[in-house]
Amino acid sequence: AQSVTQPDIHITVSEGASLELRCNYSYGATPYLFWYVQSPGQGLQLLLKYFSGDTLVQGIKGFEAEFKRSQSSFNLRKPSVHWSDAAEYFCAVIGGTSYGKLTFGQGTILTVHP
Amino acid sequence: NAGVTQTPKFRVLKTGQSMTLLCAQDMNHEYMYWYRQDPGMGLRLIHYSVGEGTTAKGEVPDGYNVSRLKKQNFLLGLESAAPSQTSVYFCASTRTVENTEAFFGQGTRLTVV
Fold first, then answer.
1. Which stretches of chain B sit within 8 Å of chain A by CB?
2. B-chain residues within 8 Å CB-CB of A103?
3. Segment B76-82 mean pLDDT
4. CB-CB neighbors (< 8 A) of B47 in chain A
C-alpha cells in the first residue's frame, strides 16, 4: 500500500521569500502525485499533478513541483510567497489502478508574515 | 456548473443519533469518495464507489454506511453517532481511473456531543 509523509507540520515564511514544502511517498512503481491547497473553512483545490513525462510540473498560483524518483519525493516550490498563500497544503498519491483513491499526507500549515 | 455539493455544511449530533450526509455531483463522474479530515492526520478514505449501485470500504469504514442509488449522488450514513466521529467530511468525485483529478465538495463539519 502507498503512503505519503509531509515532514513539516507548520512552516512560517516572510512575504516575498521563497518556499519549499516537502513530500515523500512510498510506492513500488511510479505513482500519480498531487498537491492540494485548503484555505480555512474551504474545500481542497488542486494546485498541480504529476502523471508522467517532464518531472518538473507547473501549477496554478505560481507553484511548481519536481518529481524525483531516486528520492521518492515530490516537493512543492514557489519563488516568492504572497500573504494569500497562507493555507494548509496536502500532498497526495494514487498508486496504480486503485480507482482514483487518494492517500494524503498529514498536511503542512503555511503561515506568511508581512 | 456546481461541481460537487455537500449538504449539510454544519451539524451537531448527540451521541447515538443518526444522520445522512448527501453528496451530489453534476459532472457525470463515475467514481465518488467520502473522506474524513482530522487535525494532523490529513484526509482518510471512508468509503468509495466506482459506479451506480456499487460501494466499497476505504481505510476507516467502521461506523459508516454508504449508498449510491443514483450516479450523481453518494450518501454517507451514521447509524449511531459517536464522539470519535466528530470531524470534517469531504466528498470527492473523479471521471475515470485514467483521468484521476479529484474534485472536492466544501465539506461538512460534524460535531458529536
1. 4, 31, 33, 35, 40-45, 48, 50, 56, 58, 90, 92, 94, 96-97, 100-102, 104-107
2. 45
3. 97
4. none
Q: What span, in angstroms and rounded, lies between the C-alpha atoms of B31 and A20?
A: 32
Radius of gyration of chain B (CA): 13
Which of A60, A101, A104 is the best residue to mutate to test the B interface, defined by the most B CB atoms within 10 Å of its own CB? A101
pLDDT of B71: 96
The pLDDT tens digits for B13-64 are 999 999 999 999 999 999 999 999 998 889 999 999 999 999 999 999 999 9
Q: Are A106 and B40 an interchain contact pair (Cβ–Cβ within 8 Å)?
A: yes
- Residue A96's identity, in one-letter code, is G
Question: Are B58 and B46 spatial neighbours (Cβ–Cβ below 8 Å)?
Answer: yes
CB B17 within 8 A of CB B81: yes
Encode pLDDT of B15-29 as tens digits.
Answer: 999 999 999 999 999
A33, A93, A99: best mutation site toward chain B, by most B Cβ within 10 Å? Answer: A99
